[in-house]
Amino acid sequence: MSDDRRVEVGGSSVSTLHYIGGRRVGSPSSFEDRSPLDWSVKLADVARGDADTAAAAVEAAQAAFPAWAALTTAERGEHLHRLADVIDANIDRIAEVECLDMAMLQESLRSRVIPRGAVNLRNYADHALKHEERVWSSKGTANRVIRMPAGPAVIITPWNAPWMLATWKLAPALAAGNPVILKPAEWSPLSASMLGDLADEAGLPPGVLNIVQGIGEEVGAALVADPRVARISFTGSPEAARHIGVAAARNIVPFTAELGGKGPLMVFADADIDASAKKAAGQYDDSGQVCLAGTRILVEESVRDEFLERFHRYSDAHVPGDSREPTTTMSPLIHPDHLASVDGFVRRARDAGDRVVRGGRVAEVDGRRDGLWYEPTLIEPASNDAEIVQREVFGPVLTFQTFATEEEGVALANSTPYGLSGIVYTTSRERAERVGRAVRAGTVWVNTFLVRDLTAPFGGCGISGIGREGGDYALDFHSDLKTLQILEDSTG
């Protein structure tokens, strides 16, 4: 590897440079990365990629493509399994770095989120092996559908789940035979940088995984505009997706986007009220920085008071604090700018006449209100057209509305431009089926939340995104599908 610049983060040495073609590569300028746990702490000055960086990364991926694509599915799977093994051996280190960098609860990272990276890699390595080509006879011909590796794939991930989403996206791309250029969010880039070191340790061929850091409008824009790129996978805001979609359209490049949500959490009178209230209060986890969260609580009128009493009891149990401490249940928000955005939504809601039922200000931690924590907030809107109902806040801010009939509840659930997820609480199997089908969303959970089968499709409707990831859906996206037809009895 070339000369490297590294910093100590927690107990780990992390490179601040790009990872291109199996080497660490610098840039003329850098950007600061600070810890949400204490904004006065600068973690690193990170290389700030530009158009030249993007071009070099795509060139490295393109150079690696023929050999990587020529491997059998089993051979690529062996590489992914080796990388998964290396991840498993470094879970504690990665969790500590990610906790300092984006502030998710460290125990959750260690026990659930970081191990998911290895699960993602193994899942797609094995799933690609199990995929059966479609074979059939038609009009005197034998037919097969074949997946062909598409080429270099650009993957752009958000700041709120950098490790999990990076591995979730790169695993199917690599399994399908596509080299990857990963561009992590500038607010939380460090765990992605660690992937470069782990890829080296696992013996991944140079250029198969490239990691480019920097500002989206600069290096990200250059990556998605490069005509050599064959696939683009993005998770982030609808605003950014519109720009990426234009670039993809110019080059006629397939593009998938997961763009956040404003999910309903519906509670019917026949539901387990205690379980639903506990789950609703759980939507404050990770300070609401979860795209799948059920942020619009919709409760049948007859159980309003009982639900709220239990909801407040569970919400009162949340403890904002240092994400490294086991007693902490609520982490800080990622960045001062994001804190200002969340608080701005609440201020505008209050000014518009919406009722702030609880919370609504920066939280007190250790006797101070100068950190990035925000109180668990519940708002009862004056109208369903209110901004606080119709726009994603991405913070610990929930809305509360009631409905009189199932039809009214479904209408409220489907009344925003989003459609990523929904949660329904009912003990009626018939209603579960009926409402589950009626709610317009990519995923609907009934009496549970965030249970994921990695072979199931994942994505959103409306401005929550286009395309689907997961299982065959992701492998098909990262492939060019070919129909091979051979005239029967013509080849001996």
Task: Offer a quick outline of the entry.
The protein has 15 helices and 22 strands.
What does it look like?
- There is one protein chain.
- Helices cover 39% and strands 22% of the residues.
- The chain has a 7-stranded mixed β-sheet with strand order 16-17-18-15-14-19-20, with helices on both faces. It has a 6-stranded mixed β-sheet with strand order 11-10-9-12-13-21, with helices on both faces.
- It has helices at 51-70, 73-88, 91-102, 106-130, 162-176, 190-202, 216-225, 238-250, 273-281, 304-316, 336-351, 387-390, 406-413, 429-438, 471-477; strands at 6-9, 12-15, 18-20, 23-25, 30-35, 38-47, 135-138, 141-149, 153-156, 180-183, 209-211, 231-235, 255-258, 264-267, 296-300, 355-358, 377-380, 397-403, 421-425, 443-446, 465-466, 479-487.
- The mean pLDDT is 96.
- The chain folds into 2 domains: 6-259 and 460-484, Aldehyde Dehydrogenase, Chain A, domain 1 (3-Layer(aba) Sandwich); 264-446, Aldehyde Dehydrogenase, Chain A, domain 2.
- The protein has 15 helices and 22 strands.
- Helix 14 links the parallel strand 19 and strand 20.
- Helix 2 runs antiparallel to helix 4 (106-130), helix 2 crosses helix 6 and helix 4 runs parallel beside helix 5.
- It has 492 residues and is α/β, with parallel strands linked by helices.
Global Rg: 23 Å
Strand order of the largest sheet: 16-17-18-15-14-19-20
Number of domains: 2
Which assembly state applies to the chains in this document?
Answer: single chain
What's the story with the biggest beta sheet? 7 strands, mixed
Give me the count of strands. 22
